[in-house]
Design brief:
Layout (H helix, E strand, L loop, with lengths): L1 E5 L2 E6 L2 E4 H4 L8 H6 L1 H10 L13 E2 L8 E5 L3 H6 L9 E4 L5 E2 L4 E2 L6 E2 L2 E7 L15 E8 L2 E2 H4 L7 H4 L6 E9 L10 E6 L2 E7 L7 H9 L9 E3 L21 E6 L3 E7 L1
Parallel strand pairs: 5-16, 7-13, 8-18
Antiparallel strand pairs: 1-2, 1-4, 1-13, 2-3, 5-6, 9-12, 10-11, 10-16, 11-13, 14-15, 14-17, 17-18
Length: 277
């Protein structure tokens, strides 16, 4: 399944268009996407056997974030060895966690207002939690994941690196700094969930390219590490880290401007497009 949000309503995306979940289920699920996630197991069981009505056409530009109001948004620093190296660090021995505040989450085709400073790109695969859970072992980590989506951990580097310790979470949480989408893709649609090609393009130039198998800590390991401390809720997001190629580690440095177009794509999961003003 590909769960998305269209005009503030939960929809399933098919080859023919979008199907409104509340209408298709006669009000059993939705229309709020967060309610669908809260009843994720029951929704999956219904969707497998449901006879869906005809889909309606839609524009990708009209899609909102597939998880529009997550309770918690976790993010992982330095989870690709080449990125750790370009940042001047040795690979971490345990996951390095920070948060993006949920108010930064937007859809896959958002126009983002640039604050003062240096705004950088960070393409990431995002795991969406599908069950309330706590203290989940890595061996069961995938069982509590509803699906995967594409994300950008946009970062204003001046504020992010100000102070000791620095302001990681605040510098990454301006409005629009958490684009996600175009859809939540369930794991049965992903042939190899641990090895997906990931690429970020700036004005058509490839600036990041890697595979998620290059991550130091896998999704199940991250679920184990985070849930050992924090109870997780349906719809919580885990930004799993970015590969090498970010702007502040280039020589010369390169940051986003109002004429730039940022395209983020991950195999099977889809593609996002951001513009800036």
């Amino acid at each position: 399944m590909r769960l998305a949000t269209l005009a503030d309503r939960a929809v399933l995306l098919t080859e023919d268009g979008a199907v409104d979940i509340a209408e298709a289920s006669a009000g059993r699920f939705g229309p709020d996407p967060m309610d669908v996630l809260t009843e994720w197991s029951a929704f999956q069981a219904w969707a497998v056997s449901a006879e869906l009505p005809a889909a309606s056409p839609y524009r990708t530009a009209d899609l909102d974030a597939p998880v529009p109001r997550p309770r918690q948004v976790f993010a992982v620093a330095l989870n690709y060895r080449p990125h750790a190296a370009e940042a001047g660090y040795v690979p971490p021995e345990i996951p390095l966690l920070f948060t993006k505040f949920p108010s930064c989450i937007v859809g896959p085709d958002a126009q983002v207002e640039l604050p003062e400073g240096n705004v950088d790109w960070e393409l990431e695969m995002v795991a969406v939690i599908g069950a309330a859970c706590h203290r989940v072992p890595a061996s069961e980590g995938w069982e509590v994941v509803a699906g995967l989506t594409v994300g950008q951990d946009l970062s204003e580097r001046v504020l992010q690196l100000t102070g000791k310790p620095p302001q990681f979470s605040l510098g990454k949480s301006y409005p629009g700094f958490g684009p996600t989408g175009p859809a939540l893709v369930t794991l049965d649609e992903v042939p190899n969930r641990d090895d997906l090609a990931i690429e970020c393009l700036l004005n058509g130039e490839s600036v990041q390219a890697a595979r998620t198998s290059d991550m130091i800590f896998s999704v199940p390991q991250l679920v184990e590490f985070i849930s050992a401390v924090c109870p997780l809720h349906p719809g919580d997001l885990i930004f799993t880290g970015t590969p090498a190629g970010v702007g502040n580690r280039r020589v010369p440095q390169r940051f986003l401007g109002p004429d730039d177009v940022l395209v983020s794509r991950i195999d099977v999961l889809g593609e996002m497009r951001q513009t800036f003003r």
